[in-house]
Amino acid sequence: MFGHSSRSRVALAGALSVGLAFSLTACGDSDSDSSSGDDNKAAAIDCAPYAAFGDIKGKTVTIYTGIVTPEDTPHKESYKPFEDCTGATIKYEGDKAFETQILVRAKAGNPPDLAFVPQPGLLQQLVATGKAVEAPAETAANVDKFFGEDWKAYGTVDGKFYAAPLGANVKSLVWYSPTEFKDKGYTVPTTLDELKALSDKIVADGGKPWCAGIASGEATGWPLTDWMEDFMLRLSGPETYDKWVKHEIAFNGPESTAALEAVGSYLKNDAYVNGGLGDVKSIASTTFQDAGLPILEGSCSLHRQASFYAANFPTDTKVAEDGDIYAFYLPSKDTTSKPVLGGGEFVLSFADRPEVKAFQTYLSSDVWANTKAKVSSGWVSANNGLKVENLTNPIDKLSAEILQDPNATFRFDGSDMMPAAVGSNAFWKQTTNWITGQDTKTTVDNIESAWPK
Amino acid sequence: MTTSTPVVIESPDVPGKKVSAATAAKRKLTSPWASLAAIVIAVLWTLPTFGLLVSSFRPERAIKTTGWWTFFSDPKVTFENYEAVFDPDSINLADFFLNSIVIALPAVIIPLCLASLAAYAFAWMRFPGKNFLFIVIFALQIVPLQVTLIPLLTLYVDMGIANTFWTLWLSHSAFALPLAIYILHNFIKEVPASLIEAARMDGAGHVAIFFRVLLPLLTPALAAFGIFQFLWVWNDLLVSLTFAGSPEISPITVQLSNLSGTRGTAWHLLSAGAFVSILVPVTVFLLLQRYFVRGLLAGSVKG
Description:
The structure holds two protein chains of two kinds.
Chain A: H1 4-33, H2 48-51, E1 60-65, H3 72-78, H4 80-86, E2 89-94, H5 98-108, E3 114-117, H6 120-128, H7 137-146, H8 149-154, E4 156-157, E5 160-161, E6 164-170, E7 173-176, H9 178-184, H10 192-204, H11 222-245, H12 254-267, H13 282-285, H14 294-297, E8 303-304, E9 326-329, E10 338-349, H15 354-363, H16 366-375, H17 394-404, E11 408-412, H18 420-435, H19 440-450
Parallel strand pairs in A: 1-2, 1-3, 10-11
Antiparallel strand pairs in A: 3-10, 4-5, 6-10, 7-8, 7-9
Chain B: H1 21-29, H2 32-56, H3 60-65, H4 80-85, H5 93-124, H6 130-140, H7 149-159, H8 165-189, H9 193-201, H10 206-235, H11 238-243, H12 252-258, H13 270-297
Helix pairs in contact in B: 2-13, 5-8, 5-10, 5-12, 6-8, 8-10, 10-13
């Protein structure tokens, strides 16, 4: 039943498909050769601070991180001045499964030299494996000079300073269309009351003000935790927020109930949501990547999401204060306080060789922050030495201004610091249930009971 | 139903003559309804893959806003996705493709060699504790490989072979051996004892019996298990994610999982990447599928 002719046909099909693969490889090769000359934007730097670490020419530093293509290219480019200075090589490995794999590698004794850790909770777990080493004094000095105390505290475990901050993102942002605001005469709100008034005004004009989406695979629900954290910060203040994150006050206490109810007054309000996407329940089924896109079509006006959301708009969208899309700071209760919710990565070291120390010091410097700013888009750092004019993207400039504002109080994303059973499990799942109909009290009670005793 | 369908087999069905099982099965399986069902299932199963192929040639914006079937009303063809996944400065799938081949070949050959020797020993040699050992190996199939990840990696680090291809070759071989030994053992056991005895009468030792008598008979089973193992290694992500530990030795699946970007904004490249990755398994399967079908039965009709 398997004659000669059909066998050779199958063989031909196989040969053809392999041939196709290799001809495509050839395509890719020839294409890139012509464009490889123009990526040398990084300028030369002052090499003196790294000479103190001795001759590290020919040495290699390995980096392991969750930052993958296309965001990894500006990272690699920003290391070039250091490589030119010292002759050391930086080996970059990006992996989307970083958060689980780094623990496996650290526990098995096969850690990289440096890891870019995106969560203080994970940082503590990694330090607990006993494989991490403290940051060198030079790095610590840089951090004292260029970063706020709140940032240094997130890189400190048990009173020892381990990890310098690297990148940052601002989560307290509301995306809107400047064109629409101009046409309809809306103004950017500066207090929570004004935000409410603006939402009501859009409803009165016949629109649905907000659009939201929380679907994100197994992490579905995380945008809601950000909403709640933002309102927790605004309604109860940073000190209460810290206690809440550390579980010194109960999750089903009056403060967090009030915060979730405040979120509900926006997201569970049928008049306010879900512009261009459906009713309240459609929030649960819309992916977070797609949730803000209706602003471009005019079917919704406001979308609360972090600075990194800029990358989700199609490439021909103009993201600027006078463009198609832009963001404003999610206002505080009044104009005197300015709490900022955000996230970021920290550079944790597993080796104390001189080249690793030198590179850690480079990454914590203002020189690196400015080098990185010039080559990237959609990236910002909380480094005070970062010059806003070096950033290329208007949203990055806005984020940097918010982070560097002396009145701003920065707080790290709370769900990233809570125990995993809550921060990346019950908090996500219960708020997802909440958006599809569960009441506020049951939701906070369930999260409270999920907290490890 | 059989009375109305024309008989397709060449040999005329003489009434009263005993119909062989194969003939009966063939007649039943060639019913037009069965063929129709087979075609419907084949189309349904192939449709998503076909959609993936069409998607891989569509421009980014079209992929992100509409389904692949809109291609037929509004055909726009681009090679940009393939150019992007082969771009040597960023994604560079070609290198990872090569790594996959370098990983897969030894990871197939090592367990096949060891398993066929072990299977012969379990089937035709006498040594103390044979049955107990065989049960232990059989039972090892139950151990989920996830629980071995950290201990194995620790072992590799202590041996000083971390971040080399050896970690992947050894891990894949170790995970494959229990099933390989079991399947090949059942296959070897089916060989008539008289054949082995005749060889022994002619003065052949174990080595001669294995290489001259059994190995030629084993070819289909070896090929079948080889394909199984090759597809498993080619498609593996977990083992390589844990043990590879460096982009220089990571297979294509690892890069594929990173293709969509840090926050999933570049997922339009996935269809092109996936297609590059399935080329080899599809080719292998098409070329060797008759062994594959035969191999599925290997060991299953033991009795």
